[in-house]
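To make this tangible, we now present a fold written out as tokens:
***
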Amino acid sequence: MDISDIKNLAISAKLSFTDEDLKDWQSQLEGVFTWIDKLQEVDTTGVTLQPSAKPPLLRNDEVKLFESMQGLINDFKESEDNMVKVKKVL
């Protein structure tokens, strides 16, 4: 991986680096890619995939009526027909 590749990655990520930072990133990324190459050399024949953790317990979706809806609406400065008016968000 050369400096021009890292510059292109930085542009894509909308980042800017000094020349010294680019050299530092170059050495770090080369280390990562070397490590990935070493992992690809590992023989995984006969190794089965084991889930590392139990999946989270999920509850069934069910519709529940919010009991204090009018109280919530009343907390807003402005409302009309059970809808609240909020500031414009850009």
